[in-house]
Design a protein that fits this description.
The complex is a heterodimer of chains A (213) and B (510). Chain A has 213 residues and is mainly α. Helices cover 68% and strands 0% of the residues of chain A. Chain A contains seven helices and no strands. The longest helix of chain A is centred in the middle third of the chain and has 25 residues. A two-stranded antiparallel sheet of chain B has the order 1-2. Chain B is 75% helix and 1% strand. Chain B contains 22 helices and two strands. Chain B has 510 residues and is an all-alpha fold. Chain B is globular. Classes of the chains: A mainly alpha (213), B mainly alpha (510). The interface between A and B is large, with 83 and 90 residues.
């Protein structure tokens, strides 16, 4: 192998292992998986070997038509995109009008990575917090902790947005729009659940005595 | 028509919409200058929409979009950073003016041209109403199915530089929009055995995940803020020039009229949005104004008047394909379309018959937004500009907290939160690899309509639906329009690239 061929092969290998390439391959696989699932789901479960054919359908009365139009319309473009990706590499993020990719940053890659971890970690923690502890606790707690840890805000200033969100949750959504907030997972836990019930009873008594009229 | 116009004014000038405008104005003004742009808050409005009267929800959304546009030039002129992609051309002359100590003059000229542009755009929309009404009378189920499908495909087709990805995304969007119970076939489709998906994908968590999470990630990861010292330096003495700029703008009324007509016309082309109109208006001003070939790019006031007049005129133009033909004229209009569905109104003929007063109310809203917002912006531009110095790590948790509350209101189920997270991951991938996201939104919004019309058309006409002259006329018109649109986009990209190379403009925030 000549030197230029060897360099070309190395460049090609590194292109196929780059995060840009792998990321778009994952996106293409996700789209393909859904197309295949959508198509196969319209086939009766007890279909024979020819069950995948367009006229062997579980979804009757025309319910199958548009899903199959969507899948059949998208399939050639899927192959076209896959071909372009393997031939020319990952997408350029320039030259688009309706979507633009992320802003470029000159910061150290480790710093950028740290920000991604912060973003994903805090958002994941917020969602799990909402599920486990509910909105009344998770939203103010998230706001206070994020502002103190990452925003470098003094703790007493963080109480302003926390109280603001609590007012929105209880006042606007709870009492004006009559939203239901569901039962958080932690309310079924032995000790926390009983403390929770006691706190709610205190609030209801206070509301009925002072605010209901 | 006159009765509808009076009824529209009565609805609009009642307490509900006016209170909504008062609440929305500061939010829209501050959001317009933020790097993440106004989209996350716009989507958040959708979470309230289903609980509001259509005469409050829709005018509020249109008012928000118009007010948002009004603040876009502020960061472009004051600090040379475009608040959105629609205000890039303004930088070329606006930023040099600001560096010459003429920031106030530029802002004064921008807002007079925006005001006149907005009113011309609204007048164009009003003028098109009777024509659109007659055209829609000719259409049947086959044509409405075609329009729904074209609404999805056209936006994908016009995703410049990403046509294949755009069309693939449109198909993917249409497929996921059909998850859940089918009112046509009476079956549950592709819900993966998950009970939450029985009713299909709720719009609000999908939209907030797809759009808000990637934009907020952009804000946090790029950590873009502007130094306070620089802003103070620029703003010192900006107040005096405002009157001079306003007077200067009125001297260029024909330039404003021409640019506004370009904006309104480009706005009517499906899927094009603000960017091409901005650049085309800038290019025509450079080619037609005396001495502009030499002076543009060095701080010529006409270089900010032309793009900003076209920018505001677009607001009227883009409502035409969106409201009457279900083909959104821009990503923001895709969200307006989503709001129409959420408040229970179908776009198309109903907007010209049963809801004609609502259509006209939206025209009044554009005019009203420009009249109300422009003086506020002129008075408070320095204060509004200070939003750009708020660190992302302070903005992010506040916006995220509001968003998760909005997400949960969609169906008040924990499933909303998980769908929001999943859509966020999808949105991050799509943004990272420049797959256009608007086709997914439009597909989710229009899928049910498309399926309903397809079922009626196949049962009424069978294969003969493809032979109807109306069907083929729409197809020919849209193909021609898309061809013109693609040419316009290419021209705009060429002008933009040439100007960017000449004046070293950075890439815009999305």
């Amino acid at each position: 192998m000549t030197t230029s061929n060897a360099n070309g092969a190395t460049a090609s290998r590194s292109r196929f292992t780059s995060i840009e390439f792998i990321g778009e391959v994952i996106l293409l696989i996700a789209v393909a998986a859904f197309f295949v699932y959508m198509y196969l789901d319209s086939v009766p479960p007890d279909a024979d070997a020819l069950g995948w054919l367009p006229w062997r359908l579980e979804w009757d009365n025309g319910g199958w038509l548009l899903p199959r139009i969507a899948v059949l319309f998208g399939t050639p473009f899927w192959f076209w995109r896959a071909y372009l990706l393997f031939k020319a590499g990952a997408s350029s993020t320039t030259g688009q009008i309706m979507d633009t990719g992320f802003l470029e940053t000159d910061d150290d890659p480790m710093m950028v990575l740290r920000r991604w971890v912060q973003l994903i970690g805090t958002t994941g923690a917020l969602l799990i917090g909402l599920w486990v502890f509910g909105f009344h606790i998770a939203v103010p707690a998230y706001t206070i902790l994020y502002l103190i840890i990452f925003g470098k805000v003094k703790w007493y200033w963080t109480l302003i947005p926390a109280v603001f969100f609590e007012i929105i949750i209880i006042g606007i959504y709870g009492y004006i729009l009559l939203s239901e907030w569901g039962t958080p997972v932690a309310r079924d836990w032995p000790v926390i659940g009983s403390i929770w019930d006691a706190a709610i009873n205190v609030w209801h008594n206070f509301y009925e005595a002072n605010l209901e009229s | 028509m006159w009765e509808a116009a009076i009824s529209a004014a009565q609805h609009l000038f009642s307490p509900g919409p006016l209170i909504a405008f008062a609440i929305i104005t500061p939010i829209a003004l501050f959001n317009g200058v933020m790097i993440a742009g106004g989209v996350p808050v716009f989507i958040l409005l959708l979470s309230f929409a289903s609980q509001l009267d259509p005469f409050i929800a829709l005018p509020a959304a249109v008012f928000y979009a118009a007010a948002n546009d009004a603040t876009e030039p502020i960061p472009s002129i004051l600090i040379g950073v475009p608040g959105s992609r629609g205000s890039q051309a303004t930088i070329i002359d606006g930023y040099p003016m600001s560096r010459q100590g003429r920031a106030g003059e530029a802002l004064g000229a921008v807002y007079v041209s925006s005001l006149i542009g907005g009113i011309i755009g609204a007048a164009m929309l009003m003028g098109v109403l009777p024509v659109a009404r007659e055209v829609l009378k000719l259409f049947g189920a086959a044509e409405f199915f075609l329009l729904s499908l074209l609404g999805i495909a056209t936006v994908a087709l016009l995703s410049s530089g990403a046509m294949v990805k755009g069309l693939l995304t449109a198909a993917f969007g249409l497929a996921i929009a059909l998850i859940g119970f089918s009112p046509i076939g009476g079956v549950v489709r592709a819900n993966m055995g998950i009970g939450y998906l029985w009713d299909g994908l709720p719009l609000v968590p999908m939209l907030l995940g797809l759009f808000a999470i990637p934009e907020l990630a952009n804000l946090v990861v790029s950590n873009t803020t502007i130094a306070t010292e620089r802003l103070d330096e620029v703003l010192s003495g900006s107040g005096e020039g405002v009157k001079k700029g306003m007077k200067e703008a009125t001297r260029h009324k024909w330039l404003i009229t021409r640019s506004s007509l370009i904006g309104a016309f480009v706005g009517m082309m499906p899927g094009l949005g603000a960017v091409p109109a901005h650049w085309i208006a800038y290019a025509q001003a450079r080619q037609t104004e005396p001495g502009a070939m030499e002076s543009f790019g060095t701080g010529d006031i006409r270089g900010v008047i032309a793009p900003e007049a076209s920018n505001n005129a677009i607001d009227g133009g883009v409502l035409v394909p969106t409201l009457f033909f279900s083909i959104p004229g821009s990503p923001n209009m895709a969200l307006i379309l989503a709001m129409l569905i959420l408040v229970g109104i179908q776009p198309g003929p109903p907007m010209l018959n049963q809801h004609l007063d609502l259509s006209i109310a939206l025209v009044w809203t554009i005019v009203l937004a420009n009249i109300i917002v422009v003086p506020i912006v002129l008075r408070f531009a320095p204060l509004i500009a200070r939003v750009t110095v708020i660190p992302p790590n302070i903005l992010f948790p506040l916006v995220m907290a509001i968003i998760v509350i909005g997400v949960y209101q969609s169906s008040q189920s924990v499933g909303d939160l998980w769908l929001f997270a999943a859509a966020g991951v999808l949105g991050l991938f799509m943004k990272a690899y420049a797959w256009p996201r608007p086709p997914i939104v439009i597909a989710i919004v229009l899928a049910n309509e498309a399926e309903k019309w397809l079922w009626i058309a196949t049962n009424t006409y069978g294969w003969e639906m493809f032979l109807r002259w109306q069907f083929n006329a729409i197809l020919a018109f849209v193909v021609l329009g898309a061809f013109v649109g693609i040419r316009a986009q290419r021209n705009a990209s060429r002008i933009k690239a040439a100007e960017a190379a000449e004046h070293q403009i950075g890439e815009a925030a999305p």
